[in-house]
Amino acid sequence: MPQSTKHSQPTRIRIDRRSMLKGSAVLATASVAGVGGSLVGAAPAHAAGMEAIDDRTHGRMRYVLASTPSIDWNPSVNVLLPDGYDPARRYPVLYLLHGGGQNFQKFKEDDIEGLTAGRDLIVVMPDGGIAGWYSNPVTSNAGMRNWESFHMDELIPWIDANLSTIPEAGGRAVSGFSMGGFGALKYTAKYYGHFASVSSHSGPANLRGDWGHVVTDWANTTSMAELLGGTVYGVPWDEARVSADNPMERIESYRGKRIFLVAGTAPLDQEAVVLATQREFGGALEAAGIPHERYEEPDGHFVRRERLQQDIDGVIDYLIKAG
């Protein structure tokens, strides 16, 4: 297992919290009156029910347009196949989750095809909503937006049923950027038997405490756009749901996993909050004796290609090999 990267005592990070909490006042109003109509509770999780209504392959990239009972529109999924994909073999799978304001195409920008060329790895890159936070929201005024149910109850079984995968934890990894990095950490802890490796590229790792409070408000505020006034965690927060999703409150769930964390050191943007929570999370892992890799890099909130390549290489080395 990889060992922890040691860091000096962190200095206090300064950030203008107003930029992180812009729109928080609107939340209080929305909690009373809603936006564009009455808020409704999110629907319960569904059993596996994804169907492909468009499914085509160009080169190594397979594009799937999904019909799912968990989302009231048709989300898309990019599936990057290995060179010379052979259905007679079984391949490990990396689920790669995009950030806020992005979609299933995000990692094409980061040259995911080049980063995986010649490697025996399937990469699954699903839609996760512009601000879905990889969650089933407490309230929605936009119909079904149950991203967690879609990914965990429907997409993973569909991938295992339709591709030649290694359908067990030892054959699966999850990684993501920003909101997707949080989603990767959340899914790994909440669904312990699904993934052997988890990676967070500039993803927040705590929903409580001084900086985690900012993240939870950030998730609620940004999710209003997707949910038309609804929120991921409710106003006031559904405390049980926050705890269930919070990586910092599920440290033991990461024991025995490969863990890869990276964040930037820019002092005055959202990366400062991300870095603070990753430092807290890394410290908790270290105190628990859980090996991990953690890196701090210059600058702000973006995918660092060299770290993504390092992460992919580590995933391939750690998971069960194709065969």
UniProtKB/TrEMBL annotation:
InterPro entries in alphabetical order: AB_hydrolase_fold, Esterase-like, Mycobacterial_A85_antigen, TAT_signal
Catalytic activities: an acyl-CoA + a 1,2-diacyl-sn-glycerol = a triacyl-sn-glycerol + CoA; 2 alpha,alpha'-trehalose 6-mycolate = alpha,alpha'-trehalose 6,6'-bismycolate + alpha,alpha-trehalose
EC code: 2.3.1.122, 2.3.1.20
GO biological process, one term: xylan catabolic process
Pfam families assigned: Esterase
GO molecular function, one term: hydrolase activity, acting on glycosyl bonds
Assigned keywords, A-Z: Acyltransferase, Carbohydrate metabolism, Glycosidase, Hydrolase, Polysaccharide degradation, Transferase, Xylan degradation
UniProt xrefs under SUPFAM superfamilies: alpha/beta-Hydrolases (SSF53474)
Signal sequence region: none
Top-level taxonomic group: Bacteria
Alphabetized PROSITE patterns for the sequence: TAT
Family: Belongs to the mycobacterial A85 antigen family.
Protein name in the entry: Acyl-CoA:diacylglycerol acyltransferase
The organism of origin for this protein: Actinomyces slackii
